[in-house]
Amino acid sequence: MSEQRKSAIIASPYYPSELYGRNVFTLKDMANALPKSVFASFLRQMRGRQTLDKATSDAVAHAVRIWAMDRGATHFSHWFQPQTDTTAEKHDAFLALKNTSFLGEGVHAIDTFHGSELLQSEPDASSFPSGGMRTTFEARGYTIWDTTSPMFIQPHANGTAVLYIPSVFISYNGDALDEKTVLLRSSEAVSRTACTLLNLLDPAPPGHPCIVNQVFTTLGTEQEFFLVDRALYALRPDLKICGRSLIGNLPPRHQQLEDHYFGKLPSRVLSAISEVELELYKLGVPLKTRHNEVAPAQFEVAPIFEEAVLAVDHNLLTMDAIHKVAHRHKLKALFHEKPFAGINGSGKHCNWSLSTDRGENLLDPTEKPETNYRFLLFLVAVLHAVHKHGGLLRAGISSASNDHRLGANEAPPGIISVFLGEHLTEVLRSIEESRPIKNFSRPEIQTIKLGGRVLDVKVSTLPNIARDLTDRNRTSPFAFTGNKFEFRAVGSKQSPSFPVTLLNTAIASSLSDVAAALREQMGDRPYPTDADKLAVIKKFIVSSKPVCFEGDNYSDSWVVEAEKRGLLNIRNAPDAFEQLQDATNRDMLLQQKVFNDSELQSRYHILHERYAKDVLIEVGTLLSMINTMVLPAAFEYRKSLAETCASLVAIGSKDMPERTILDELAPAITALQRDVTKLEEVSKEVEAIEEASVKSHAACERLLPLMDAIRANADFLEHRVPDKTWAIPKYTELLFTSS
């Protein structure tokens, strides 16, 4: 960033609320630009009550073009989410040519944007992942405007901008080729089944509309990432190509002093993140927090909760902004889940809840959750969903990159369980055992005094503080955190769409099960009694009990205990992907109409195919680095030592510590060459496998162990070869030069 630009930012203090949404074409902007009748027609369409007609779409297109061009836009783009964990866009100019030769005026240029261009576009569908639904000669696909997500502009350095139209992406036959279509379907499935249950609990009088007409899934995505010096990053082929270091040793000091977490943000990092926030506020992205994470050079930003589909759009914009702004500050953002071995990796903690169209959080336990039967019914529905479809949720967060993080000391294991906390656990146990609940309303339980459980002390200048209903369990993959669930196992670089889609769909199915059980319990009664509700709550407490765990998910004892409970312990992504073919999961996804059979089969194929490609890319990168960087450095150092030893022998020296080092190098170099040859052979065999699922399993089982063996010897050589000979930047430089 230029000094002039820095000065401009420093000299212009701003209120975030005044910048918020400046680059977004909001409903307020639309209302100001459109006739009232046209705007009302658009609102009815957006809420699913009518089809968007040509007159309305043309009016909206004209209004948004004027708004965008007044802000420097020269092009528009349908912005969509193919199955690549990123976004895609194709820019079209507003420029058009108008032929008025019949008037004697010839051809002249105009700026135009029609409703048909706003509604849909036609990108090439053959070059995006389709899992076999599209072939090379079947190229046609369509992007369709998602009217529930606002349009926005992205300014560029040259003063121009592009109008972005959030869209879905479907095939010529209408099948979903993207992440957003299925997310929208899953949100509707949750709304449909949740409203059914709510209106069963609180039926409207005859002749009156339903009490609740829509339920929204809400989402807040905490985004973790690393920032490293871009010049050093450029010297690491593994970071550039794979996003993670394939070789490298931890420095003597890394995160063991526990001094980086919530520490002072480095000045260059603070400058970059502040600029990220500035850009995102203008895009209507409500970033709320920023802080150092546990590992050196690791950071986190987190937004305020939003409706889930919009929150996913905003998370992808956040990652894009971090990437672009970091580049301007000569930094590189790493979103890989485990860019550096031996220290904490990065996740994308998805905080998920449900809210009605009346603004009520359905997962708010209130002061007395034991008597809040509506909350308890939704709570046990979540428990039932996670217990029944835990394998499916594991599939949603699985990838070649997240495999390196899951089960390590900073991330949940591959066993999907739920943490509820002491209070809610006691509530459920009391219902299960038909006994009174322990008294959690006593003042000493509701507040915290300085001095803890032992010292009865008080500092007069410090007040007592309110205690939350539950403590936090950072080892749990799916933890209740007050009025929401935190799905902590999602990977940092993946789009939240797919894991949230699977979670939504499992919850929708579970809510149907709860509603059916409640109807059965009611019998002929027109509405359920408290006894009916308690009976259903108790039924699901008992059936889902194995998935609830309050202890340390990292412990070996939990692995043993989980097996006794019948919980799945899926240790790698290819095994997790098989859960999409499991009859229970498959039937549920099809029944809720979130996927059709072709879409589900294609997703299964794409995930396996992507895994194998990721591993094979890493193999090729590792082989290149070993053959062109590691072994040449080792050979050069060995030659230098050998020449030194020969010189010492020539002068009759008997004390030669160089000989000891020389003797240590030979076995490591020999083993490295042997394993490289073996990896080259095996990778060719794996590459030749055609079936995607077989290929991914082979890549996992045959290639990863060889890569680990090669890394061990390469890392040994890194400890021995002098810095002047070792050309690859080490962890010491990468982790401690972002400030």
UniProtKB/TrEMBL annotation:
Residues 74-174 form the GS beta-grasp domain. Gene3D superfamilies: 1.20.120.1560, Glutamine synthetase/guanido kinase, catalytic domain (3.30.590.10). Residues 179-630 form the GS catalytic domain. GO terms for biological process: glutamine biosynthetic process. It comes from the Eukaryota. SMART domains: Gln-synt_C (SM01230). InterPro entries: Gln-synt_C (IPR040577), Gln_synt_N (IPR008147), Gln_synth/guanido_kin_cat_dom (IPR014746), Gln_synth_cat_dom (IPR008146), Gln_synth_gly_rich_site (IPR027303), GS_Type-3 (IPR052725), GSIII_N (IPR022147). Coiled coil: none annotated. GO terms for molecular function: glutamine synthetase activity. Belongs to the glutamine synthetase family. This is Glutamine synthetase type III N terminal-domain-containing protein. It comes from Syncephalis pseudoplumigaleata.
